Amino acid sequence: MSQSRGKYDFYIGLVLAMSSSIFIGGSFILKKKGLLRLAKKGSMRAGQGGHAYLKEWLWWAGLLSMGAGEVANFAAYAFAPATLVTPLGALSVLVSAILSSYFLNEKLNLHGKIGCLLSILGSTVMVIHAPQEEEVETLQEMSQKLGDPGFVVFATLVVIVSLILIFVVGPRHGQTNILVYITICSVIGALSVSCVKGLGIAIKELFAGKPVLKHPLSWILLLGLIVCVSTQINYLNRALDIFNTSIVTPIYYVFFTTSVLTCSAILFKEWQHMAADDIIGTFSGFLTIIVGIFLLHAFKDVSFTLANLPVSLRKDERAVNGTLPNTYERFNHDEESSTCVSEIQSSENVSSRRNGNLSAF
To answer: What are the boundaries of the signal sequence (predicted)?
Structure first.
């Protein structure tokens, strides 16, 4: 009976995780559409510190969609293991990229598509090789985890780095460097996930009839979640307003996933029980993510698609052999047509000269 129940919970968590990715991926598009409408009206843009988006219904629809996705994601953790739920967050990247090409006319070149794929694969490999987190059943146990010196140092560093990015780096480089605002969202997001896990435990205890509301940690976690989520929303809006959605979404996913895995490892001491193959898999996944980010960021302005690939091969073949392979003739129909027309005109001119016909001149 317990195995059957566990399998039932697994599929519930799977459906919730997939639904979460769809809602979150769509929320990026709705928010971006709302911000673009405000830009056309001449309102002060979110990237410049404006908050006119609060009056735009499309932005609110995106916020509600993201809220629904986060709720589904929160519920998924209660039914399925984190090693399943976290990688499925990559689906939001694919949903956002597909929808942005239809509704925002944003295109990803071949490098971007490969980079997006590598980022997803790398994050998935990291999660697969990450060890299972230690079980925490009560708020008292969670309180002990949060009070651990290692996590206190980590949380302090996150707050310090976030404040430096917000007040020093952001005003100078936030408009030109895509990583500034996304890094703020990601590192703060690591703390928000910790708050969500703690609140999940509190809700379970509340349904079990325990006096959770009298425990100060419950209110501290709730306040921390509100502050973290508000900060994430603000700076994610700025990133979406300034940069291409197809670039923001995968980079945010990669940074956020890495931050959450790091926070979870420190909070639950997972690294102490890692095997050698898990360590190698984690580093391999991380390096794959770095390569994916490089392809996404370094070549985002290069216009290169699969349609250009046969042309490039044809040019290389011509340079070597001096001839055009028949396989690639159809990819250069226009070029060959113009060449044929020029040859025909030249032939007609020569023929006209030989026959003494001056009309050709």
So the answer is: none
**Sequence spans of domains, the chain:** 135-268
Q: Is 305 left (phi over 0), alpha (psi -120 to 50) or beta?
A: beta
Tell which phi-psi region holds residue 105, choosing left (phi > 0), alpha (psi between -120 and 50) or beta: left
313: confidence class by pLDDT, cuts 50, 70, 90? low
What Rg value do the Cα atoms of the chain yield, rounded? 27
∠ Cα 17 182 192 (to 5°):
50
Q: What is the pLDDT of residue 241?
A: 85
Look at residue 157 in the predicted model and tell me its pLDDT: 95
CA-CA distances (angstroms) from residue 78 to 13, 94, 199? 8, 25, 11
CA distances from 239 to 55, 91, 224, 294 (A): 19, 20, 23, 18
- Look at residues 158, 154, 226 and name the one whose alpha carbon lies nearest to residue 186: 158
Length of the chain counted residue by residue? 361
The predicted-structure confidence for 133-166, as pLDDT tens digits, reads as follows 556 778 888 888 899 999 999 999 999 999 999 9
pLDDT at residue 320 greater than cutoff 50: yes
